Protein backbone atom coordinates (compact mmCIF):
# COMPACT_ATOMS: atom_id res chain seq x y z
CA UNK A 1 0.00 0.00 0.00
CA UNK A 2 1.27 3.46 -0.76
CA UNK A 3 0.61 6.49 1.45
CA UNK A 4 -2.53 7.54 -0.40
CA UNK A 5 -4.07 4.08 -0.07
CA UNK A 6 -3.16 3.99 3.62
CA UNK A 7 -4.80 7.39 4.22
CA UNK A 8 -7.93 6.25 2.39
CA UNK A 9 -8.03 3.01 4.41
CA UNK A 10 -7.68 4.90 7.71
CA UNK A 11 -10.36 7.40 6.66
CA UNK A 12 -12.71 4.59 5.63
CA UNK A 13 -12.22 2.74 8.92
CA UNK A 14 -12.67 5.95 10.91
CA UNK A 15 -15.96 6.51 9.06
CA UNK A 16 -17.08 2.99 9.90
CA UNK A 17 -16.20 3.47 13.56
CA UNK A 18 -18.26 6.68 13.63
CA UNK A 19 -21.36 4.91 12.26
CA UNK A 20 -21.35 1.51 13.96
CA UNK A 21 -22.16 0.58 17.54
CA UNK A 22 -20.07 -2.60 17.88
CA UNK A 23 -16.61 -3.67 16.70
CA UNK A 24 -15.26 -7.19 17.15
CA UNK A 25 -11.52 -7.96 17.20
CA UNK A 26 -10.33 -11.45 16.30
CA UNK A 27 -7.16 -13.28 15.27
CA UNK A 28 -7.09 -15.53 12.25
CA UNK A 29 -3.71 -17.25 12.46
CA UNK A 30 -3.26 -19.92 9.84
CA UNK A 31 -6.73 -19.80 8.32
CA UNK A 32 -6.94 -20.96 4.73
CA UNK A 33 -8.43 -18.83 1.98
CA UNK A 34 -11.46 -21.13 1.90
CA UNK A 35 -12.02 -20.71 5.66
CA UNK A 36 -11.73 -16.91 5.46
CA UNK A 37 -14.09 -16.89 2.47
CA UNK A 38 -16.61 -18.97 4.43
CA UNK A 39 -16.35 -16.57 7.39
CA UNK A 40 -16.83 -13.55 5.12
CA UNK A 41 -19.86 -15.23 3.51
CA UNK A 42 -21.43 -15.87 6.93
CA UNK A 43 -20.72 -12.32 8.06
CA UNK A 44 -22.25 -10.90 4.88
CA UNK A 45 -25.30 -13.12 5.42
CA UNK A 46 -25.71 -11.62 8.89
CA UNK A 47 -25.38 -8.07 7.54
CA UNK A 48 -21.87 -7.65 8.94
CA UNK A 49 -18.50 -6.71 7.48
CA UNK A 50 -15.26 -8.61 8.15
CA UNK A 51 -11.92 -7.04 7.28
CA UNK A 52 -8.33 -7.98 7.95
CA UNK A 53 -6.51 -4.80 8.95
CA UNK A 54 -2.96 -3.72 9.62
CA UNK A 55 -2.75 -3.01 13.33
CA UNK A 56 -1.00 0.33 12.96
CA UNK A 57 -3.57 1.61 10.46
CA UNK A 58 -6.49 0.30 12.51
CA UNK A 59 -4.99 2.00 15.58
CA UNK A 60 -4.79 5.29 13.70
CA UNK A 61 -8.42 4.94 12.66
CA UNK A 62 -9.43 4.22 16.27
CA UNK A 63 -7.83 7.43 17.59
CA UNK A 64 -10.50 9.84 18.75
CA UNK A 65 -13.37 7.34 18.45
CA UNK A 66 -15.41 5.71 21.20
CA UNK A 67 -13.70 2.38 20.41
CA UNK A 68 -10.21 3.40 21.56
CA UNK A 69 -10.42 0.76 24.30
CA UNK A 70 -9.76 -2.05 21.81
CA UNK A 71 -6.34 -0.73 20.72
CA UNK A 72 -4.48 -3.09 23.12
CA UNK A 73 -6.14 -6.04 21.34
CA UNK A 74 -4.50 -5.12 18.03
CA UNK A 75 -1.51 -7.47 18.21
CA UNK A 76 -0.64 -10.15 15.70
CA UNK A 77 -2.75 -10.95 12.63
CA UNK A 78 -6.02 -9.27 13.57
CA UNK A 79 -9.30 -8.82 11.82
CA UNK A 80 -12.19 -6.49 12.59
CA UNK A 81 -15.89 -7.16 12.16
CA UNK A 82 -18.78 -4.74 12.56
CA UNK A 83 -22.45 -4.30 11.84
CA UNK A 84 -25.37 -2.07 12.77
CA UNK A 85 -26.78 -5.05 14.70
CA UNK A 86 -24.14 -5.94 17.32
CA UNK A 87 -25.76 -9.27 18.13
CA UNK A 88 -25.46 -10.47 14.51
CA UNK A 89 -21.68 -9.95 14.46
CA UNK A 90 -21.19 -11.60 17.85
CA UNK A 91 -23.40 -14.60 17.00
CA UNK A 92 -21.72 -15.19 13.65
CA UNK A 93 -18.22 -14.92 15.12
CA UNK A 94 -18.93 -17.16 18.11
CA UNK A 95 -20.58 -19.82 15.92
CA UNK A 96 -17.64 -19.78 13.49
CA UNK A 97 -15.10 -19.93 16.35
CA UNK A 98 -16.79 -23.10 17.65
CA UNK A 99 -16.04 -24.89 14.38
CA UNK A 100 -12.62 -23.39 13.61
CA UNK A 101 -9.77 -23.36 16.17
CA UNK A 102 -7.68 -20.96 14.08
CA UNK A 103 -10.23 -18.17 14.49
CA UNK A 104 -9.85 -16.67 17.97
CA UNK A 105 -12.10 -13.91 19.28
CA UNK A 106 -10.05 -11.44 21.33
CA UNK A 107 -12.84 -9.08 22.37
CA UNK A 108 -14.68 -6.08 21.13
CA UNK A 109 -16.30 -2.80 22.02
CA UNK A 110 -19.97 -1.94 22.34
CA UNK A 111 -19.96 1.83 22.25
CA UNK A 112 -17.48 2.99 24.87
CA UNK A 113 -17.69 -0.32 26.75
CA UNK A 114 -14.77 -2.67 26.00
CA UNK A 115 -15.77 -6.34 26.03
CA UNK A 116 -13.61 -9.38 26.72
CA UNK A 117 -14.35 -12.77 25.15
CA UNK A 118 -16.99 -13.51 27.82
CA UNK A 119 -18.76 -10.25 27.03
CA UNK A 120 -18.85 -11.06 23.32
CA UNK A 121 -20.23 -14.54 24.09
CA UNK A 122 -22.92 -13.02 26.33
CA UNK A 123 -23.84 -10.60 23.55
CA UNK A 124 -24.08 -13.53 21.11
CA UNK A 125 -26.66 -15.22 23.35
CA UNK A 126 -29.08 -12.28 23.11
CA UNK A 127 -31.87 -12.43 20.55
CA UNK A 128 -31.17 -10.61 17.30
CA UNK A 129 -32.68 -7.24 16.45
CA UNK A 130 -35.14 -8.88 14.01
CA UNK A 131 -36.27 -11.37 16.67
CA UNK A 132 -36.80 -8.58 19.20
CA UNK A 133 -38.84 -6.60 16.66
CA UNK A 134 -41.01 -9.64 15.92
CA UNK A 135 -41.58 -10.23 19.64
CA UNK A 136 -42.53 -6.59 20.14
CA UNK A 137 -45.01 -6.67 17.25
CA UNK A 138 -46.49 -9.86 18.71
CA UNK A 139 -46.90 -8.22 22.10
CA UNK A 140 -48.60 -5.22 20.54
CA UNK A 141 -50.94 -7.35 18.40
CA UNK A 142 -52.05 -9.70 21.17
CA UNK A 143 -54.08 -7.14 23.21
CA UNK A 144 -55.68 -5.79 20.04
CA UNK A 145 -56.76 -9.30 19.01
CA UNK A 146 -58.18 -9.93 22.48
CA UNK A 147 -60.12 -6.66 22.39
CA UNK A 148 -61.52 -7.53 18.97
CA UNK A 149 -62.57 -10.97 20.26
CA UNK A 150 -64.30 -9.47 23.30
CA UNK A 151 -66.11 -6.91 21.17
CA UNK A 152 -67.23 -9.54 18.67
CA UNK A 153 -68.56 -11.98 21.29
CA UNK A 154 -71.59 -9.90 22.43
CA UNK A 155 -72.52 -9.12 18.83
CA UNK A 156 -72.44 -12.82 17.99
CA UNK A 157 -74.59 -13.65 21.01
CA UNK A 158 -77.11 -10.98 20.02
CA UNK A 159 -77.24 -12.34 16.48
CA UNK A 160 -77.94 -15.86 17.80
CA UNK A 161 -80.71 -14.56 20.10
CA UNK A 162 -82.35 -12.63 17.24
CA UNK A 163 -82.00 -15.69 15.03
CA UNK A 164 -83.72 -17.86 17.66
CA UNK A 165 -86.60 -15.36 17.99
CA UNK A 166 -86.94 -15.24 14.21
CA UNK A 167 -87.15 -19.05 14.01
CA UNK A 168 -89.67 -19.09 16.88
CA UNK A 169 -91.86 -16.51 15.10
CA UNK A 170 -91.64 -18.51 11.85
CA UNK A 171 -92.62 -21.70 13.68
CA UNK A 172 -95.63 -20.00 15.32
CA UNK A 173 -96.75 -18.46 12.03
CA UNK A 174 -96.66 -21.80 10.21
TrEMBL record:
InterPro entries: Ribosomal_uL10, Ribosomal_uL10-like_sf, Ribosomal_uL10_bac, Ribosomal_uL10_bac_type. One of its GO terms (cellular component) is ribonucleoprotein complex. Keywords: Ribonucleoprotein, Ribosomal protein, RNA-binding, rRNA-binding. One of its GO terms (biological process) is translation. It holds the Pfam family Ribosomal_L10. One of its GO terms (molecular function) is large ribosomal subunit rRNA binding. Forms part of the ribosomal stalk, playing a central role in the interaction of the ribosome with GTP-bound translation factors. PANTHER family: 39S RIBOSOMAL PROTEIN L10, MITOCHONDRIAL (PTHR11560). This is Large ribosomal subunit protein uL10. The lineage of its organism: Bacteria, Pseudomonadati, Pseudomonadota, Alphaproteobacteria, Acetobacterales. The gene is rplJ.
